[in-house]
Amino acid sequence: MAQARVDTIIETWKTKAGLTLSAEEEEKLKKLFTEAIERVGARRQGAKELIGHLQAAVEASDSAKIEELLTKLREGFRKVSEGREKILDEFDQIVKPEQRARIVLSGVQRAKESGRSIEQVLFELLSPADESS
């Protein structure tokens, strides 16, 4: 499912942003985004489980467990930020500045049209298909 979503993203960039990619660039982008979507999905599943455990700890008034889970949650947020930076670094290695600019401008236009922030639009790109919108 991630592959179909990535194919759609790339095709949208080609048509709406006027993006041209070499076969190698396209292959690398597809691999990068497919892996990123899979990692985001796994992180979300882990976060859902952690929140379930946190809810149980709160209901049980287990302060030590609550503290442990909140620490894990915060560490998860750090890992998400690090993961985003890593994806951006890899993305920057694949496409040229003009290509990146076209993608960003296309995202800004999409954000304006949808009434959402650019951050929401970009986050949606890496969200599993069943959780975005």
From TrEMBL:
Name of the protein described by the UniProt record: Uncharacterized protein
Task: Tell me the lineage of the source organism.
Answer: Eukaryota, Metazoa, Spiralia, Gnathifera, Rotifera
